[in-house]
Amino acid sequence: MKILHTADWHLGKKLHKYDLTEEHQLFFDWLVSLIQEREITLLLISGDVFDLANPPTEARALYFNFLRKMIELKCKIVITGGNHDSASMLNAPKDILALLDVRVIGGATPNLADELLVYDDLVVCAVPYLRDADLRQSLEGETASNRVEAVRQGIKSHYDELAQLCQEQYPDKFALAMGHLYAHGARRRNRNEKYRWVI
Question: Which range is most confident: 12-16, 70-74, 132-136, 158-162?
């Protein structure tokens, strides 16, 4: 299996009121050529597919046209939502796309196991951008630093629980984690530690 990772397309973005549709189309033309040339079998897209929660028609057309080309190439796809994406907008066609080997995790799932996607000997831990509401409840009188720490701990717990679930359910498969998040103050763990992410 050959895997390619990409993220932060920001389809629909304007640069100082300049429409970037043509530039995005050139990017997609290049990406399709690269996927064909390298014979990529799994494409991972880690969030911020769109620049706005309600993207313009042109941006949606670019997105679905690209997916159509990937389906024609029989390239499997995993898409996770980012902080610029609307989880519900990304998730709307997910059941139909799943039939075409395009898996979408637009937002945090009620059942954590739904973020584990299995491909032969590989498990993709597909984590979307985790919003404040996904991670904690607001508390009266809470300070900004307490809120930031609660979110940080919530993100860490989400990834740790997903890693544990992956290890329990698929101990003999190779695991690959993908996510869309802010990483500030992260450190690499010692090689002897079981999991390597620290938020």
Answer: 70-74
Q: CB–CB of 116/169 below 8 Å?
A: yes
Helices (H), 21-56: 21-38
Q: Cα–Cα distance between 78 and 46 in angstroms, integer? A: 8
Strands 174-179 and 122-127: parallel
Tokens of 198: 């620290």
Q: Which residue has the tokens 């979307």?
A: 128
Query: Do residues 6 and 28 lie in contact, with contact meaning Cβ atoms separated by under 8 Å?
Result: no
d(CA 129, CA 94): 17
Residues β-bridged to residue 11: 50
- Contact predicate 91/108, CB 8 Å: no
Q: How far apart are the first and last CA of the chain?
A: 29
What stretch of H or E contains 169? helix 144-169
Q: What is the pLDDT of residue 139?
A: 53
Separation between Cα atoms, residue 142 and residue 166, nearest integer Å? 34
Task: State the Cα–Cα distance between residues 114 and 126, nearest whole angstrom.
Answer: 9
The CA distance from 45 to 79, in Å, is: 5
Residue 186's pLDDT band (boundaries 50, 70, 90)? low
Among all chains, which residue has been given the structure tokens 């499997």? 76
- Cβ atoms < 10 Å from Cβ of 161: 12
